[in-house]
């Protein structure tokens, strides 16, 4: 009961008594209230059928040894709107709290989970407001944003220093310099990629703009150059020595620290067929004229060109793997025999 008394009621969280939302969240009573209400959201939010949404996701997280828990912003805004408001305006502090709550929630089902992963990362999906890369301004700094574009460049994966303890020597009371123990230092996976505006979104006569995106933990290698993706992350400023030397006064570059990466093609992969759709597909598969019907359905307004339409149909459906001398060869890598 003492812990509950030290928390603020949910209706009082919106009465911000600090200079900024970040300072308000740093208040211990406010933080405890956020922890309790987000835990309650994860455990009690249900879908239209009355089934727990995030209880099942947390169990799947432990079964698959994953470290990312996807949370829909729309669900959070519907159930706990004040938490959603804090999240968009102070995402760094809120995500740190969400990660802590998610880890404690999964430890209830899997007490040994920390032997595999020391942290769980809450990934925010379905952020309603989308911005273009050229529309990001000072007002978006340190806020949660959603942008889309094409990956043009990607670096390798590097270990980034996450936690190192620097203290004084108890024997001589010296304060350094000390050498870093690389074995006991905590690192995290780090990767940088360049996101450029999609060709169709660039205004006429303008050059496409780009932003650097930072990928951490299990988000590395989520996208490769040439893919069109959607990024939900924190828009930050970053000190750039080259800009300062060029301009002669403090100028900061900007980056996006990714929280969630979604490929545009994954939006179609997430589509689920209904039972009626499966019945119709199986009925079409039994049709003797299915090959001709598929070819005729390609560009029906263009007469003729049967060879081109056949080639398009075959490229859409691809083929099956062939077992040649016990070596499985993909249909995409087969070559016709020499004539």
Structural class label: alpha+beta
**CATH class descriptor name of the largest domain:** Mainly Beta
How many domain modules?
3
CATH topology of the largest domain: OB fold (Dihydrolipoamide Acetyltransferase, E2P)
Query: Radius of gyration, rounded?
Result: 26 Å
Write a concise synopsis of the structure shown.
Helix content is 35%, strand content 22%. It has 339 residues and is an alpha+beta fold. It folds into three domains: 2-125, 2-Layer Sandwich (mini-chromosome maintenance (MCM) complex, chain A, domain 1), CATH 3.30.1640; 133-269, Nucleic acid-binding proteins (OB fold (Dihydrolipoamide Acetyltransferase, E2P), Beta Barrel), CATH 2.40.50; 275-333, no CATH class.
Please describe what this structure looks like.
This protein is of the alpha+beta class and 339 residues long. The chain folds into three domains: 2-125, mini-chromosome maintenance (MCM) complex, chain A, domain 1, CATH 3.30.1640.10; 133-269, OB fold (Dihydrolipoamide Acetyltransferase, E2P) (Beta Barrel); 275-333, no CATH class. The protein is 35% helix and 22% strand. The protein has helices at residues 2-5, 21-26, 28-44, 53-63, 73-79, 81-89, 91-109, 241-247, 264-269, 275-285, 290-297, 306-317, and strands spanning 68-72, 121-125, 144-154, 158-163, 186-196, 210-216, 228-239, 252-263, 322-324, 327-329. It has a five-stranded mixed β-barrel. A hairpin with a 2-residue loop joins strand 9 and strand 10 (327-329). Helix 5 (73-79) crosses helix 6 (81-89). It is globular, with a radius of gyration of 26 Å.
């Amino acid at each position: 009961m003492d812990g509950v008394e030290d928390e603020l009621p949910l209706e009082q969280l919106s009465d911000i008594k600090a200079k900024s939302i970040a300072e308000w969240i740093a208040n211990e009573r406010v933080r405890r209230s956020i922890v309790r209400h987000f835990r309650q959201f994860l455990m009690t939010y249900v879908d239209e059928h009355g089934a727990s949404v995030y209880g099942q996701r947390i169990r799947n997280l432990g079964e698959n040894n994953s470290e990312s828990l996807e949370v829909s912003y729309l669900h959070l805004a519907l159930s706990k709107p004040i938490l959603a408001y804090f999240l968009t305006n102070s995402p760094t502090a809120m995500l740190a709290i969400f990660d802590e709550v998610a880890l404690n929630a999964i430890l209830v089902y899997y007490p040994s989970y920390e032997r595999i992963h020391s942290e769980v990362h809450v990934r925010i999906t379905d952020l309603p407001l989308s911005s273009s890369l050229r529309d990001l301004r000072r007002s978006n700094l340190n806020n949660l944003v959603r942008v889309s574009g094409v990956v043009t460049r990607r670096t390798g994966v590097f270990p980034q220093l996450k936690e190192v303890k620097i203290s004084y020597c108890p024997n001589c009371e010296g304060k350094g310099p000390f050498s870093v123990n690389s074995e006991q230092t905590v690192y995290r996976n780090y990767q940088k990629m360049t996101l450029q505006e999609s060709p169709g979104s660039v205004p006429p006569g303008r050059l496409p703009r780009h932003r650097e995106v930072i990928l951490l933990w299990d988000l590395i290698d989520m996208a490769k150059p040439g893919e069109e993706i959607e990024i939900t992350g924190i828009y930050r400023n970053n000190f750039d020595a080259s800009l300062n030397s060029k301009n002669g006064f403090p100028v900061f570059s900007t980056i996006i620290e990714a929280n969630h990466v979604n490929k545009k093609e994954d939006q179609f992969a997430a589509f689920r067929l209904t039972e009626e759709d499966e019945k119709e597909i199986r009925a079409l598969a039994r049709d003797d004229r299915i090959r001709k019907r598929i070819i005729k359905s390609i560009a029906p307004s263009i007469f003729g060109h049967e060879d081109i339409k056949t080639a398009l149909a075959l490229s859409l459906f691809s083929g099956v793997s062939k077992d040649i001398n016990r070596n499985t060869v993909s249909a995409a890598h087969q070559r016709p025999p020499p004539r």
